[in-house]
Amino acid sequence: MTTMHPHELLRGNAEAVRGKRVQQGMVRRIASFARPYRWQLLGFVGAIFAGSVMTLIPPLLFRSIIDDIIPDSNRGNLHLFAILLVMAAVAAAVAAYLERLWSARIGEGLIFDLRVALYDHVQRQPILFFTRAQTGALISRMNNDVIGAQRAFTSTLGQVIGNGILLILTLFTMLLLEWRLTLLAFMILPLFIIPTRRVGRRLQRIVRNQMEDNAAMNNTMTERMNVSGAMLVKLFGRYRRERDEFSKQASDVRDHGVRTALVSQTFFIALTLMGALGTALIYWYGGLMVINGRITIGTLAALGFLVARIYAPLTALTNARVDLMTAFVSFDRVFEVLDAPIDIQDRDGAAELEEPRGEVAFEDVHFTYRPPSGELASLVNLGGSDTSLHANQAKNANQAKSETHLANGLSPQITQITGEARPAVDGVSFAISPGQHFAIVGPSGAGKTTLVSLLPRLYDVERGAVKVDGIDVRDLTGESLREAIGVVSQDPHFFHDTILCNLKYARPDATQAEVEEACRAAQIHSLIASLPEGYETVVGERGYRLSGGEKQRLAIARVILKNPAIIILDEATSHLDSENEAAIQAALANILRDRTALIVAHRLSTIISADQILVLDEGKLVEQGRHEELLTANQLYADLYRTLESGEAEKAETV
């Protein structure tokens, strides 16, 4: 992947900021992030100023050496001036070091502050935010845009301040030495500005295309180099096609990189030639003035030295606005995410759920999948442009989705509905006493997983209330509520870490003995102990090194270790064979004893033993009762039961 110079990256976005102005509100907000570093910022600017002053001392000393010391054969002053030259160089080096030190501290500090703020804010977003946003776009905000914002304070700000100070001090010094030669140096300034703008526009197009090609290549690598993508490529045997497509993308990046390097170098050479022309003019006209006795040789030498120092700052400052505005774009993109409202958060004065009993009640609950109010179109649209908050939200509101749950979340259920969004849960009411087990059944898409997702507040109800121990879950702190609830999903998630770390995610302070006890209860300890690295075995991305049944047993062990008052099982035994299921059912019987349980299940053994069975259809609670009562009613449950019974019988015959 080709790496571009930061200045080129900033130039690449020049057209994106053309005509835009920095808003005062953004400046104040940026200043609030910079406030903790205000003294370091002062030191940073002071070091730039000191360094610029130190660079002006040598030409002035050379002027005195040529005009006074050498003609007078003043060896004492010559020794003194040589020492002063060395001291000026040392002082300039110290200033440069302090400038880099404070620049690094400010920049890295800002990166830290912005990343932590972004990570904390995004983590608090509801599940719908994550399931609709592109992961790569979110990561880009936390990496590229945060670094771009940091660059506004260090590289861009430093260049603007440094070039401005150097230009002012140099021009002031040149005017003091000889104003006519200073004006002559300004006469060739258009020769710098015109090619800067023309070549800059061409460079913008090339760099922008290069960034787009880089993004496409990175997206290909991201999709093909995870487990699922690699497996798909292998199963279809598309090695040659993948290589050829990637080679085409990489070659485009290479070609644009070569063009960028050539245009940049041509531009640099042109500026160097213009600088040489300006210096030649100074020496030519200045030489005539020396011959005519208007100035001294030392003054001419000093001016020749100084004139080379004004063209580079002048050229850089012609693009200062573009550079600053482009850097502020990164701040704007960071603030866009930080300003995204969080739909589900603790209310003021939310109560702690202490010593939960496990009483659960759903009271006329209604819920429909809709885009979250914090959704950003720039994070959702494939290849979309950055747009403001809530853009395209009206369009998206008519496309409801039930989403894939993360981490300890619930099983995936994806529904695409056009037109008016259909309620996923429609007027459901029931109550569970502490220690009771309720099974939830229904056709696919009936709203089973959605219903149990409302209990730990993965989503919030639109109407009605979900209560735990008689308290609306919206009046409880999210942390205490979720501490009381344990979830085992159909496809449990594991981080790319060791078995021990994944298990202790449920309870970080758990001892090794407690971890092993939980694994024994989940019938997985003997398998873990047989592995060469035991509990230190790395499970791989999303736990891909484990079978489905092993992942489910580990997920059960994780919930056992958490020891919650309420347990949600969402097809928690779907990947187990008959032998393992019998062992797990015994373990579940132990862990479910004296605990409230909501069980989404298709296994007959789980359904039949439930205290109550809830039958959902199109989001509505159409039946409720015990197994025998519902069979006698001979309605939807009876049809579902007969289907499940025949399916399990066929499965048993094939074993």
Number of β-strand runs: 10
Query: Largest beta sheet: what is the strand line-up?
Result: 6-7-8-3-9-10
Radius of gyration: 35 Å
CATH superfamily of the largest domain: P-loop containing nucleotide triphosphate hydrolases
Q: What is the 3D form?
A: elongated
- Terminus-to-terminus distance: 52 Å
Largest sheet: 6 strands, mixed
Total domain modules: 4
CATH class of the largest domain: Alpha Beta
CATH topology of the largest domain: Rossmann fold
Mean pLDDT: 77
Number of helices: 24
Runs with pLDDT <50, length 5+?
1-19, 382-420
CATH architecture of the largest domain: 3-Layer(aba) Sandwich
- Give me the secondary-structure category: alpha/beta
Helix content percent band: 55-70%
How are the secondary structure elements laid out?
Blueprint: H1 6-11, H2 24-34, H3 38-72, H4 75-123, H5 127-132, H6 135-177, H7 179-187, H8 190-224, H9 227-236, H10 239-291, H11 297-318, H12 320-338, E1 360-367, H13 377-380, H14 393-396, E2 425-432, E3 437-441, H15 448-453, E4 463-468, E5 471-472, H16 478-483, E6 485-488, H17 499-504, H18 512-521, H19 525-530, H20 548-562, E7 566-570, H21 578-592, E8 596-600, H22 604-608, E9 612-617, E10 620-625, H23 627-633, H24 636-654
Parallel strand pairs: 3-8, 3-9, 6-7, 7-8
Antiparallel strand pairs: 1-2, 1-4, 4-5, 9-10
Helix pairs in contact: 3-4, 3-6, 3-11, 4-6, 6-7, 6-11, 6-12, 8-10, 10-11, 18-20, 20-21
